[in-house]
Amino acid sequence: MTLEREELRDDWTVTIAGDAVPQGAPDGITGRTIPATVPGQVHTDLEREGLLPDPTFDRNEEAAKWVGRADWSYQRTVDVDPKGFERVDLVCDGLDTVAELSLDGVVVGTTRNMHRRYRFDARDSTGGVGRGSKTLEILFESPYREAGRVAAKAGSMPGPYDEPFPYIRKMASNFGWDWGLTAVTSGPWRPVAIERWSTARLRDVRPLVDVEAGEGVLDAHITVERSGMNDLDQDGEDDDLVLVVTVSGPTAEGGTTRQRSRAQLTPKDDETVVTVRVPEVQRWWPRGYGAQDLYDVVVELQTVDGEVLDRSAFRTGFRSTRIDTTADAIGKPFNIHVNGTLIDVRGVNWIPDDVIVSRVTRDRLASRLGVAADLNVNLVRVWGGGVYESHDFYELCDELGLLVWQDFPFACSAYPETEPIRSEVIAEARDNVARLARHPSLVLWNGNNENIWLHDVDGWADELGDRGWGLDYYLDLLPTIVDAVDPSRFYTVASPWSGSESLFANDVNHETHHSWDVWNRLSDEHYRDSVPRFVSEFGWQAPPAWRTLREAVTDEPLRVDSPGVVHHQKATDGMAKLARGLEPRFGSVDDADLDRWHYLTQLQQARAVATGVEHWRTHWPRNTGVVVWQLNDLWPVSSWSAIDSAGRRKPLAHELRRLYDDVLLTIRPVTAFRASVEQPGGADHPTSSAGGSETADLGGLADTLSLGVSPGAFGNAPIEVAVRSTRTGHDSVVRVRRVTLAGAVLAEVTLPVHLSAAGVAVVALPESVGVVDDPANELVVADMDWRRAVWTPAPDKDLRWPEARYRTETTPVVDEHGAVVGVDLVVTADTLVRDLLVQPDRVAAAGTVDRGFMTLLPGERVPFRVLGVAPEQVEELVREPALWSLDRALGH
Question: Is the pTM for the entire model greater than 0.70?
Fold first, then answer.
């Protein structure tokens, strides 16, 4: 008989357990039976029943912290009758976190790791199979209590936060972060099921793929588990088993190919490798480099008579990958190759999409990752303070062509190497490396986030003494597991990492780099101080979309310094850093003027990120990757995200679409970057101070750089145009105009842009357009095809902005049923209009727009498609502050 799976989704209850009720719990919680959602976590059930305020709303976070201090009992009745099968197993795909499972009071298993799958024998303690219905209880102990026991044994471990996440294998960001609230969860966060089976089942299927001379090769590493109860043959031994692996998928001609291989397991064997070869395979490519062809794989475990005992079906893709860190004339690159092609990585960092992570659905993942794809992103880094995501996440990345960089869950802290943590790390790593092997999007495993860097710069060694702090995991244990379980994937020790313990971990010339000096201490033009080989983290903060902030914070009047606004900012000194970031470019903002502050912080975030991305991407191939921190949020918060927790796109998202386009046009100062040796340190996102500089020896890469004056220069310093073409050559012309703020053209040139292959073209500008006469009254505008770049020769606060004048026209947008779903808004400029922004969420909760900040010269027109706005809201849409330009925000 084929294995049967019955998911236990309904009829659950949850109650607070134990005699001690944490301070802050509501009256009447003791003994109250609450309907429970499974998969789920207890916060959602308590909130639904009115026993818990929404911790993401206003300042409710404190009022909800008691939940993490309590024990919780989940119960339901289960049928453990074998129904003719030999085995009955209780299968838990994810339990958060410290749990004891029992059937009618008989303990069948315990857990202490949110990141693992579990399977328990549901037969009773006498060895027979339990009959009929039994009460299943999953008793979750407070994560704080378990963490306290481990901490008492391991000793204090240094890190940036006063929360015990290093002592428990749980989503670290449940305990708060510099963008996250504290909401410590418990519950069966992934499905719970009863599985019935006989003879044998598939314990593990690890399909490792490659491409050899145009032929796809799938090596299916398969492990089986025998029931130990099946009939023996005449020699008193178990029967043989048969494994059949079938691969079906597209051909070059548009048809379908089907290839099959089989292997026989003797009773002495429980694992084997079944190889399937697919002639003329259609390769899987990252987004922008080719199609995402996927193949259906079916693995069947059969008896010798052909009876199917178990079956696993999934999709995979065929591609070859390689990450090159071979030393060159500069240091060590971090070059990601797929199918022999060096990929220009345009990435985003991913955090859990909800602090209550069980609430994240496939539809929500599809929305977030769909936005990433729309922004021309081709890599998503799953950050190490979250979780190993669901198959839904990786399947969507497979389909969208988004490469996945996967961190192991270690972030920003020292971690005990003692038991029980070490054994849990081994089990979870083996489990997840095997579980995720089928996904072609997954190209990289990373040992930790910032731990080695912080150990060195924050002086952890003094506190740790000779105690292990995780280095053994990163240098030995985890790479050994990856090599044993999935040698097809690359492993890197850390992010950032320079490839050797003898090198400073965050050296810009070696492998991966985190750039947090800018934002924490320095203004954004300092992104131009160096060109790291691969930037795996950098970013700039801004608040969420106006509507998202307004829906989360009810303070009246709403001010920059309102208690709720400040509470929804978790970075150390975060509000002051936002203010200090505005000052050099835009000046100070009065705390009472939230509208102005909101507009300018969004603009500063977009400008700052653009400064870094434009600089680094136009220094290819010295730099081969940029990964912005961060794509998403897990609650309404001022953060580095491009999409806020409500799914609304900040202006940064629209700017990323431009920055990550295959062809990038930029104006930059004629500059020789400084290859700084940084000595960083700090708390939330580490900071650094320059420790000296030199002009890098570029060797054969020198032709991609233009040398001149120091970076970040304003005023009369010369500028140049740089064009980055990612995948092909590019032939075009660039029109460059030097204009006054009144819109008068002072000088104009049209210059050829020629790239015979993918790379960077640097276009030197004649002095007539490359040097301004009056930095307070001039702009330089470059146009190529439909792309535009604008250079401001002085800080915006110092320019003599005239009042922007423009006209608006609107036309209804109707759907296929004739219903009005929005408007097409066309703005025509009568004067120069700098950084015009449409904010439809200010007039309609569902309002969206397809563009961010736009700059127009007199007579130019720009269309905006605005959806979710009703006809009666259009008049408000075209008024301030829903439609705003920079001169208004600066008060000119």
Answer: yes
